[in-house]
Design the sequence.
């Protein structure tokens, strides 16, 4: 009988890529692990089972220099990788396989020998020290016969069980099992390496014992008592938290250590939806279907790219136009003719406009509009209503009053990093409160009025007309921010519905159906002011954005998409109202029909929102308290969605009638609201 230790390792870790070859002391992590494992008296062979993925080529080359047997196999089907590695090592049915993971560099040879002796002394198919755990995380060992491994390889179908190798051996009841326990439960100690915090702890341990590498696990235990400061870095991480995390969750956790806030858009932070459970990343998309990094199919009834994809994801005509640009070339020293054609189209559908400028994001388009308007009016001060991006000019509204923007979509926006000299340059007024704007205009030399035409509510009688009249009276430039509202209820700006024309309008979101293109259009005498102010950026001239916009506008006009998505959203809103009424759940709805949302009237509203997101995710939906409509939301998809949402309102009703706090039904924290730091 041969004892074969198989070390599972790879370079493509989601939370700490490349960790296997990261330095610990004076050597790579894998070297420390193999050296310590090699001291076990009962281990006859060591095999490192790595993947066939290209990042593991470097690991294979390194193992070759160590003259260590290396077996390569599937990245996702780790069970098969183990089975193939055992076969490559010449395993026979009665041979003992020891499973060691590459994130356990402090593996203890004496503990390995102890478990081998326990395996040999027990009439068991599977022996470990993890079921239940009592040793520190990072000393995990599992042992089983090659015959048992072969049986698991033949019988296991679950993707989870194949990824994690041993749950079937341990939990199916088809095998006899035995656990080796420590007298004291030390399972809360963390000596494994999943994240940078873990690696820092291991480096502290190795440095503390240097130049020795033969220290025992009990010596490390004593070190935790003598130098607890060396172990603080990863104390917050839960044992085996990665076992129940999808690839997207792991990737998000890693991202937060590399990218402040985790990503580039607050509205896509996992914590805004379902902390600790949200899939966070996608691998591909089509229509209103998104596949996550685990290839799970999810129906997007939530944000559809945060409002960008009204035609549906990967629309064939828009994508074909983009592919043609890629084939022909996206950037050269010369200009792209598509930007001229796009300017013509936007001005044609908006008779007030004579000229256009283009950008690639909504925030910068709004900043461009403000610059042009200030230059045209000759005055710096701005009256604003609504959400208009992240730039200094906008956040200046919170200088001196950090709650100034709280009623303009996002509460909690701090003006940190915004020059204090901008204080008093921007004045918020609330929607449909015309008297607030009148007061501001009378009190300040305001040269620009900037607002969303509508977001959560529509304009009251004569409201927009009065706005236009005040702009004329005070010779202020009126800007309508249509980044969100554009192409939802009209072919172009929402202001066309109300027959009120601005001086400038800003477009984004839906204009390119997922490709980056935003624009500012306006009256010639205002737009010409751009010539007197430096407004210029290299990638505003790339070709993909305008080409995508032209293709998108063509499809929109043919399909009359704005009418369809408005009708779809109205159907969803009516479905929410009916379901909530059936279950006596009080709700309020808001927003344009194509961008509708609801809130449950309860002190537990945010917890209910999180609960709905959690339960709908289990049913295969990206869902919550909003529905951004697209042409891809077919009748069948809408009917199934509303049926599931009926169950959600029933769940809320049960919580209310039973007096149960919905937080007790959550598998993680309540979703964030507004702007909060993540790390």
Sequence:
């Amino acid at each position: 009988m041969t004892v074969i230790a198989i070390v599972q390792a790879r370079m493509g870790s989601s939370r700490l890529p490349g960790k296997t070859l990261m330095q610990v002391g004076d050597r790579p992590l894998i070297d420390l692990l193999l050296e310590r494992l090699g001291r076990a008296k009962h281990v006859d062979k060591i095999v490192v089972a790595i993947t066939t993925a290209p990042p593991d080529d470097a690991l294979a080359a390194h193992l070759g220099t160590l003259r260590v047997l290396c077996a390569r196999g599937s990245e996702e089907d780790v069970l098969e990788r183990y089975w193939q590695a055992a076969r490559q090592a010449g395993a026979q049915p009665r041979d003992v396989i020891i499973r060691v993971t590459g994130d356990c560099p402090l593996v203890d040879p004496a503990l390995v020998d102890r478990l081998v002796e326990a395996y040999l002394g027990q009439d068991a198919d599977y022996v470990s020290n993890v079921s239940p755990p009592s040793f520190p995380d990072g000393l995990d060992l599992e042992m089983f016969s090659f015959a048992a491994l072969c049986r698991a390889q033949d019988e296991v179908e679950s993707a989870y069980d194949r990824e994690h190798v041993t749950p079937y051996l341990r939990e199916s009841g088809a095998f006899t099992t035995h656990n080796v326990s420590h007298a004291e439960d030390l399972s809360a100690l963390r000596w494994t390496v999943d994240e940078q915090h873990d690696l820092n702890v291991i480096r502290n341990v190795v440095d503390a014992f240097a130049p020795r590498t033969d220290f025992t696990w009990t010596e490390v235990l004593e070190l935790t008592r003598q130098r607890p400061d060396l172990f603080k870095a990863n104390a917050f991480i839960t044992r085996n938290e990665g076992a129940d995390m999808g690839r997207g969750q792991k990737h998000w956790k890693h991202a937060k250590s590399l990218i402040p806030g985790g990503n580039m858009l607050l509205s896509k932070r996992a914590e805004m939806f379902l902390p600790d459970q949200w899939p966070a990343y996608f691998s591909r998309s089509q229509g209103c279907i998104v596949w996550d990094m685990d290839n799970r199919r999810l129906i997007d009834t939530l944000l559809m790219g945060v409002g960008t994809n009204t035609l549906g994801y990967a629309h064939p005509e828009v994508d074909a136009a983009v592919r043609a640009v890629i084939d022909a070339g996206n950037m050269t020293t010369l200009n792209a003719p598509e930007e001229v054609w796009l300017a013509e189209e936007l001005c044609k559908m908006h008779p007030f406009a004579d000229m256009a400028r283009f950008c690639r994001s909504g925030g910068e388009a709004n900043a461009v509009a403000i610059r042009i308007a200030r230059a045209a009016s000759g005055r710096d001060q701005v009256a604003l209503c609504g959400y208009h991006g992240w730039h200094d000019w906008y956040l200046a509204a919170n200088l001196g009053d950090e709650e100034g923007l709280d009623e303009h979509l996002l509460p909690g926006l701090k003006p940190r990093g915004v020059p204090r000299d901008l204080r008093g340059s921007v004045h918020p007024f609330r929607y449909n409160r015309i008297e607030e704007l009148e007061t501001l205009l009378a009190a300040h030399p305001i040269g620009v009025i900037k607002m969303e035409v509508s977001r959560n509510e529509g304009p009251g009688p004569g409201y927009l007309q009065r706005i236009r009249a005040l702009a004329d009276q005070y010779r202020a430039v009126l800007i309508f921010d249509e980044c969100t509202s554009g192409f939802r209820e009209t072919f172009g700006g929402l202001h066309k519905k109300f027959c009120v024309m601005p001086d400038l309008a800003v477009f984004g979101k839906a204009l390119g159906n997922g490709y980056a293109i935003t624009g500012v259009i306006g009256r010639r005498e205002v737009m010409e002011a751009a010539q007197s102010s430096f407004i210029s950026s290299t990638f505003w001239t790339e070709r993909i954005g305008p080409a995508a916009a032209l293709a998108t506008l063509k499809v929109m006009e043919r399909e009359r998409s704005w009418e369809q998505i408005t009708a779809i959203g109205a159907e969803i809103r009516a479905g929410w109202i009916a379901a909530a009424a059936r279950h006596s759940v009080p709700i309020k709805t808001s927003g344009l029909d194509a961008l509708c949302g609801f809130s449950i009237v309860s002190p537990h509203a945010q917890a209910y929102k999180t609960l709905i997101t959690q339960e709908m995710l289990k049913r295969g939906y990206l869902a919550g308290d909003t529905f951004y409509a697209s042409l891809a939301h077919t009748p069948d998809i809408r009917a199934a969605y509303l049926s599931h949402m009926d169950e959600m309102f029933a769940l809320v009703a049960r919580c209310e009638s039973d007096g149960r706090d919905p937080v007790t039904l959550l598998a993680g924290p309540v979703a964030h609201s507004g702007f909060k730091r993540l790390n």
Notes: Residues 635-658 form the longest helix (24 residues). The chain has 23 helices and 23 strands. The chain has three domains: 3-234, 254-312+562-665, 316-559. The domain at 316-559 is CATH 3.40.640.10 (Aspartate Aminotransferase; domain 2).
